[in-house]
């Protein structure tokens, strides 16, 4: 494999604390370290019990618990949360939960500039990114702003013990998708490559152990460690076709986030593989296979995860509409995607059969694929 001798890499100031029990034992210290005295705790309705434990640990530094986070951050939820944070006189927020809770926290930070502490409970990786998302009138907008990047991330593997196996698997594959796309991103770098390889290896090793025994704390720690690495890859690079497809399917067609990532990833990787030899080589090593798209598809099947968009409820007639939307918007990808190719990728994901190994494509086409504008 040739060495990537031209790159840039930006490090953002984020403190990471990782230990079992840290949600309760480390969060108050992180708040003190940041000089915060009145924190609003943000979570979803299902995560309220754990969030209350964090709120209790914060004691007088807790300004309240706002348990209204939902998937894809509807803009009216963001409006309400900003009003709550202002009424509480908070000087920061603690998000307790997965990407939805972190997403609502980021929406607050975007509007108010208040600092965030994230206590993640899934493997989505949002805590390591400056990417925010808001959904309005059926369309999800995303953007990048350093103000939404959590200043402190408290990883507590114990918090993930309650994650049901189906969500464990799909959330884990969501993390894998960040690493996969970071490997062929136009702004990838040797450090991203190292993190992606280690993240993929650790997650692929942890998921079967967790499907067999979801209370295995060692495997939970390994999966959360992988999520940290994969999330860092996401935060450091520009995502491509896979994230664009999932963004359209989630934001416009209402499909569930992690499950959609799990279904789509093998097909996008099969499409991009001929244009991404370095990524393919890294993934072969990390997954111990000659055929990473097929290995990811088999992993999902073996662990009982959904494998078709039809199974997730996408109407057959929406395949073309989604593909046109994907093809019609610019995004960075190692291989250009025509409307027909987007349709073929989506059609294959809709049906859920084994991904076809793609043939070689001309070098000229590969180079044309990079450098487009969208950052997620
Ligand atoms: P989620 O936060 O929506 O959680 C899914 C479900 O699992 C919820 O019902 C939640 O209550 C429950 N849950 C979460 N943790 C649990 C636990 N430990 N035990 C039991 N139940 C638990 O799911 P997600 O996949 O983490 O996040 C999806 C959202 O995050 C999407 O809106 C997506 O766009 C966003 N996201 C953003 C970024 C970014 O960088 N901005 C990255 C990844 C995902």
UniProtKB/TrEMBL annotation:
Region (Disordered) residue spans: 350-376
Alcohol dehydrogenase iron-type/glycerol dehydrogenase GldA domain mapped to chain residues: 13-157
Top-rank taxon: Bacteria
EC number: 1.3.1.32
SUPFAM superfamilies xref list: Dehydroquinate synthase-like (SSF56796)
Residue stretches making up the Fe-containing alcohol dehydrogenase-like C-terminal domain: 168-350
Name of the top EC class for this enzyme: oxidoreductase
Any GO MF annotation of the entry: maleylacetate reductase activity
Matches recorded under Pfam families: ADH_Fe_C, Fe-ADH
Keyword Metal-binding: no
This protein's UniProt keywords: NAD, Oxidoreductase
Residues spanning the signal sequence: none
Oxidoreductase keyword on record: yes
Family per similarity comment: Belongs to the iron-containing alcohol dehydrogenase family.
PANTHER family according to UniProt: ALCOHOL DEHYDROGENASE (PTHR11496), ALCOHOL DEHYDROGENASE 4 (PTHR11496:SF102)
Name of the protein in its database record: Maleylacetate reductase
């Amino acid at each position: 494999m040739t060495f990537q001798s031209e790159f840039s890499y930006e490090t953002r100031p984020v403190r990471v604390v990782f230990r079992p029990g840290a949600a309760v034992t480390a969060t108050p210290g992180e708040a003190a370290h940041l000089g915060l005295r009145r924190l609003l705790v943000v979570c979803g309705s299902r995560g309220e019990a754990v969030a209350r434990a964090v709120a209790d640990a914060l004691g007088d530094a807790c300004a309240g618990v706002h348990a209204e986070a939902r998937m894809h951050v509807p803009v009216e939820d963001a409006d309400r949360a900003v009003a709550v944070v202002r009424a509480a006189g908070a000087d920061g927020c603690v998000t307790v939960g997965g990407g939805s809770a972190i997403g609502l926290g980021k929406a607050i930070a975007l509007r108010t500039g208040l600092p965030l502490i994230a206590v993640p409970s899934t493997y989505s990786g949002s805590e390591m990114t400056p990417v925010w998302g808001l959904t309005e009138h059926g369309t999800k907008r995303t953007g990048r702003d350093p103000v939404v990047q959590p200043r402190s991330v408290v990883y507590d593997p114990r918090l993930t013990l309650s994650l049901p196996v189906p969500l464990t698997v799909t959330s884990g594959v969501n993390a894998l998708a960040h690493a996969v796309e970071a490997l062929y991103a136009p702004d990838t770098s040797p450090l991203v490559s190292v993190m992606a390889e280690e993240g993929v290896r650790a997650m692929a090793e942890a998921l079967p152990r967790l499907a067999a025994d979801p209370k295995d704390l060692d495997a939970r720690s390994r999966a959360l460690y992988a999520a940290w690495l994969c999330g860092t890859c996401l935060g450091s690079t520009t995502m491509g076709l896979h994230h664009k497809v999932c963004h359209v399917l989630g934001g416009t067609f209402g499909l569930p986030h992690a499950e959609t990532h799990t279904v789509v990833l093998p097909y996008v990787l099969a499409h991009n593989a001929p244009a991404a030899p370095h990524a393919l080589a890294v993934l072969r090593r990390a997954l111990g296979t000659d055929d990473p798209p097929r290995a990811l598809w088999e992993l999902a099947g073996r662990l009982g995860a959904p494998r078709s968009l039809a199974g997730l409820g996408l109407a057959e007639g929406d395949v073309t509409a989604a593909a046109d939307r994907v093809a019609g918007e610019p995004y960075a990808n190692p291989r250009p995607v025509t409307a027909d190719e987007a349709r073929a990728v989506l059609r294959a994901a809709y049906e859920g059969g084994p991904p076809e190994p793609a043939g070689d494509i001309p070098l000229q086409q590969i180079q044309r694929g990079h450098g487009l504008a969208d950052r997620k």
